[in-house]
Amino acid sequence: MDLDRTPEEIARAAGDAIRTLNHRTQAHSTFTYPSEIQSTAVGLSAVLLGLPQTLDQLHHGIDAVSSTQHLYAYDDSNVDDITDRAKTELVEAVGHIREASQALQQVVNLLAYVGAIIPDDEPAETV
Predict the structure, then answer these.
(1) How far is the first Cα of the chain from the last one, in angstroms, to the nearest whole number?
(2) What's the predicted TM-score (pTM) here?
(3) CA 113, CA 116: separation in Å to the nearest integer?
């Protein structure tokens, strides 16, 4: 774990990793066995399990910054309304992510029961 990076750098790297995964899995031939799909879903499940904590920490970050600095809105809007709305949206996002996490965990559980027949010309250790 590299704690020398800033939260912004870590978040950008996570976004880049997801974009890379999206490109890598575009082709239908990306996966040879169901276990590879299940294993990828396990990794994504871990991402979803961690996101609620991250978003909660962003929520608390808004509170911390609001209490220690004089904030203003670029368009002269009420900054308290803006930050309150941002915190509300973070809470809603956490709920949606938890729902997605539960659904993805079901995918992981279901795919755990799926296998593939290995062709005779392929060694068994490649599964």
Answers:
(1) 29
(2) 0.82
(3) 10
Identify the residue whose tokens are 């941002």: 86
Q: Which two tokens stand for residue 11?
A: 């978040």
pLDDT tens figures, 47-99? 999 999 999 999 999 999 999 989 889 998 999 999 999 999 999 999 999 99
- H/E stretch holding 81 reads helix 79-111
Tokens representing 9? 């750098």
Pair 46, 97: CB distance under 8 Å: no
Task: Give the other-Cβ count within 10 Å of 59's Cβ.
Answer: 19
Q: Which of 126, 121, 124, 101 is nearest to 41 (CA)?
A: 101
Would you say the C-alpha torsion 83, 87, 88, 92 has a positive or negative sign? positive
CA 96-97-102 angle, to 5 degrees, is 100
Tokens found for residue 91: 């809470």
